[in-house]
Design goal:
Chain A: One of its GO terms (cellular component) is plasma membrane. Chain A: This is Embigin. The complex is a heterodimer of chains A (about 280) and B (about 475). Chain A has about 280 residues and is an alpha+beta fold. Chain A is built from one helix and 18 strands. In chain A, a hairpin with a 4-residue loop joins β17 and β18. The longest helix of chain A has about 60 residues. Chain B is mostly helical and about 475 residues long. Chain B has 18 helices and no strands. The chains are: A alpha+beta (about 280), B mainly alpha (about 475).
């Protein structure tokens, strides 16, 4: 079981934080660290070692898979544990990523440093029609910190182009609330389809969520609609025509029987009444 | 055709003949297209909220409007069905509701949706609902409860099937396209309407059924029941002119407008029974919708996980269907047939008891049996409402009576969920809401039981006489509120 403790203290105008994690033999572990502002972050790893408790082992730090320069140190066995600690200066988006402390070649703890992620991502595309307007929304969960502001981007090939309402005020509208944002696109065309990104802006970086927009023409739902309507018309016509042909047949038969039936009628009813009482 | 029908129905009652089950199938489809579609409207809410920037309360009005309009305009449905024919009513309703949904798919504001989806579609549904249910009653005698059970199960089965389909439609075509396709689906009501073949002239059908009843009553029922029949007739004697083909006019005129014309002698005798039934239905409608609305929030508040809470709703839905069909079949059994009203009272009372016990159930494993029992008896009483009504008013007035019955459901359906919500906000727990629901349901059961008991104790010693020889009124079952129970 890995335990973790969290200490927060400020010194000056840059706050220091210590994030610690303890690893027992034969395990690897990942910690998610959420950061809002630039910070000097101290990462501390403690390892209880394996069967052969060597007095010294080499420990180093990795960032995103590459070894951090000058991070290789010799770790002494102290009180049955090895400890690695390093302070990293996290100032911008490039500093975020995956940091790992490695003991020899055996134990590793990974710290994933990131800004708050947008949790509820709609995986199905939003569908809308040519000429209609569509509302695309993004939301940051209540449990996560509020973003400073929101930006919207449209995917252009592999790039993202930011959407500025000022440039095209008739087509785009952005409505921002603290935790929600809405992009309204008017007068849709087929070219408007594709991936849209909403960016939650924090001091340290902007986290992205994406939504896909599909623009279809009105003919698409019209096909099943017309198919079902034709089926209804055909069935109704068939039933009514069948009934008409049946009634014509019965009419010719019935008029023959009626003359016989009427003689029996009144007698029949009186006899049933007598049977009743 | 009239003659051919008469002959065949004297030989074998309409009950269970091939065409009767087609009618049941039609009513099933009508229930699917009306009640199930109404329930599936709530799937559109999230889309409406995002598109129109509204909140949950404003969008949920659409569902309440459709439900309320369907019930409120039920008498119009029975009026149209009586005046012209069930076929005309259902086809007209199908066209209207389809048109309403079509207009909704082009709607540009929430208020327009209220009008097109809420009012127009609701009106169309109401034109279909009552006449088709009344039609089933006309075609069945012995197996009426089972037929109604199968027909009413359409709302449950329809919801189960339509909900994922509507979800798929929304994902593929967005809510506009989904409403368009749904409007075409609802147009199938016209097909159902076309199949609701009028039995000759509808009024002469009643006279025919009177004639059929006579041999039917003697030959198909048990000897002991036949002996008890004179006692049954005490409450129902009135002169009925001998039906002669071509002159049913006076009865027909009176039968046509139950609510608008003023009540004749035979209708006046029906009125007390029907009033009791009406009052009990008012209580019933006040209590029955609350658990459906508040079960999930209550489960979540006692710590049940969201997936488990959703599972509870599914249990309710499935047991609803099971209750519809099995309880209908059960009450048609010979041993239970005389106790139809008792079975109905028992079903409603059981529901009421469940609701009263609900606040004591504070875990998922305890709420599952609640959902099972409540769902089963909810399906049970829904299937029995038309049967009990038919028993009390007879087949002739069934259509009009059903219109009034469903009309009485409208306002309680509309106001009881908000009142329940207000109680939750006021007291901070769901106990009061479930208590209200339980008490309403129990009062509904008690009203019928008490009045029946009082009537039995105060049965007049001499039969109410009439000068002409007594003829049987078209009573469907063998039990009514005012007469002796044939034990």
């Amino acid at each position: 079981m890995a335990e973790c403790c969290f200490i927060h203290f400020s010194r000056g105008d840059v706050s220091h934080r210590v994030r610690a994690s303890t690893l027992h033999a034969g395990e690897s572990h990942t910690e998610n660290v959420e950061l809002l502002n630039p910070v000097n972050l101290a990462l501390q790893c403690t390892w209880t070692g394996n069967q052969n408790k060597l007095p010294n082992i080499t420990g180093f730090w990795r960032k995103d898979g590459d070894e951090v320069e000058n991070s290789r140190v010799t770790v002494q066995l102290e009180g049955d544990e090895y400890e690695l600690k390093r302070v990293f200066s996290i100032v911008s988006e490039e500093s975020l990523g995956s940091y790992s402390c490695v003991f020899g070649s055996e134990a590793k703890i990974e710290f994933v440093l990131a800004a708050p992620q947008i949790g509820e991502v709609r995986d199905k595309p939003i569908v809308s029609y040519v000429g209609d307007s569509v509302v695309i929304a993004c939301k940051m969960e209540e449990t996560k910190p509020k973003p400073g502001s929101w930006n919207w981007y449209k995917a252009n090939g592999t790039d993202k182009e930011q959407i500025f309402v000022v440039a095209e005020p008739l087509r785009y509208e952005i409505k921002n609330e603290e935790r929600k944002t809405k992009l309204v696109v008017h007068n849709l065309t087929e070219a408007d389809g594709g991936l849209y990104y909403c960016g939650a802006v924090y001091a340290i970086s902007t986290t992205m969520g994406h939504v896909e927009l599909k623009v279809i023409s009105f003919q698409e739902p019209l096909k099943p609609f017309i198919a079902i309507v034709i089926e209804v018309i055909v069935l109704v016509a068939a039933i009514l025509l069948y009934e008409k042909s049946q009634s014509k047949k019965n009419y010719t038969e019935g008029s023959n029987r009626e003359t016989q039936g009427e003689n029996n009628g009144p007698e029949g009813s009186s006899s049933t009444r007598q049977r009743k009482i | 055709m009239v003659d051919g029908k008469r002959r065949s129905s004297v030989e074998s009652p309409l009950d269970g003949g091939g065409w009767s089950w087609v009618i049941v199938g039609c009513c099933f489809m009508v229930t699917v297209c009306t009640r199930a579609v109404t329930r599936c409207i709530s799937i559109f809410f999230v889309e409406f909220q995002t598109h129109f920037g509204a909140d949950y309360a404003t969008t949920s009005w659409i569902h309440s409007l459709v439900d309320c309009t369907t019930m409120l305009c039920a008498p119009i449905g029975s009026l149209v069905g009586n005046r012209w024919s069930c076929r005309v009513a259902v086809m007209l309703g199908g066209l209207l509701s389809s048109f309403g949904l079509l207009l909704s798919s082009f709607s540009t504001s929430l208020e327009l949706l209220y009008l097109t989806m809420g009012v127009l579609t609701g009106l169309g549904f109401s034109l279909c609902y009552t006449p088709s249910i009344a039609m089933v009653g006309c075609y069945f005698r012995r197996r009426r409860a089972l037929a109604y059970g199968v027909a009413m199960s359409g709302s449950g089965i329809g919801t189960l099937v339509l909900a994922p389909v509507v979800q798929l439609l929304i994902e593929s075509y967005s809510w506009r396209g989904a409403l368009l396709v749904l409007s075409a689906f609802v147009a199938n009501l016209c097909v159902c309407g076309a199949l609701l073949r009028p039995i000759g002239r509808r009024d002469s059908e009643e006279e025919e059924s009177v004639e059929e009843e006579k041999p039917g009553l003697v030959s198909t029922r048990d000897a002991e029941l036949a002996v008890k029949l004179p006692k049954d007739w005490d409450g129902r004697l009135e002169p009925v002119p001998v039906p002669v083909p071509g002159s049913p006019a006076p009865q027909a005129q009176r039968g046509r407008c139950f609510s608008s014309c003023f009540l004749s002698g035979q209708e006046r005798k029906l009125l007390p029974d029907f009033l009791v039934l009406a009052v009990s239905f008012l209580f019933l409608a006040s209590g029955c919708s609350l658990p459906f609305v508040y079960l999930v929030p209550y489960a979540l508040s006692v710590g049940v996980r969201p997936q488990q809470a959703a599972f509870l709703m599914s249990i309710l839905g499935v047991l609803d269907i099971v209750g519809n069909i099995t309880f209908g079949w059960l009450t048609d059994r010979r041993c239970l047939k005389p106790y139809l009203l008792t079975s109905y009272v028992v079903a409603v009372a059981m529901e009421g008891l469940c609701c009263l016990l609900a606040p004591l159930l504070r875990s998922f494993s305890l709420l599952v049996p609640f959902a099972v029992v409540y769902g089963y008896f909810d399906g049970a009483y829904v299937a029995l409402i038309p049967v009990v009504t038919a028993d009390v008013v007879g087949a002739r007035y069934l259509s009009s009576a059903l219109g009034v019955v469903y009309f009485l459901h409208a306002i309680p359906y509309l106001i009881s969920p908000p009142i329940g919500g207000w109680l939750v906000d006021l007291t901070g727990s769901y106990t009061a809401t479930f208590f209200l629901s339980g008490v309403s349901l129990l009062s509904s059961a008690v009203v019928i039981a008490a009045i029946t008991g009082i009537r039995r104790c105060r049965r007049p010693p001499a039969p109410r006489a009439s000068s002409s020889p007594p003829t049987v009124r078209p009573i469907g079952g063998s039990q009514s509120l005012s007469s002796d129970r044939s034990d």
